[in-house]
Amino acid sequence: MAKLLALLICFLFLAAVVSAEIAPSGVVDDEGADDHKGSNDGKGNLKPSQCAGECDRRCSRTHHRKPCIFFCNKCCAKCLCVPPGYYGNKETCPCYNNWKNKRGGPKCP
């Protein structure tokens, strides 16, 4: 019984740590918001040559850097927009926000 209780405590601790690392989708990170320029027509006004730098900024705080940069660059090339901050704020780039993967989830980080 003590082993089961210890296992349950470890599981709850792990769940708390993991949920603390993953920001909820409603979180808005205002840092970097001033340097972002977007438009309401779905396409931004970035030049394709600016995508690498913007995606590097966007993905700088994730533990999944390679896939984040890969998909961010793909989305930026299509939408010419990268949301401000490191997470969230996708509503500022409608094309970036509305592009979905095969399962219906968000394609762009």
TrEMBL record:
The answer, when asked if Signal is one of the entry's keywords, is yes
Region called Disordered, residue ranges: 28-52
Question: Signal peptide: which range, if any?
Answer: 1-20
Q: Which InterPro entries match?
A: GASA
Q: Which UniProt keywords apply?
A: Signal
As for family, the record states: Belongs to the GASA family.
Q: Which protein are we looking at? A: Uncharacterized protein
What is the scientific name of the source organism? Eragrostis curvula (weeping love grass)
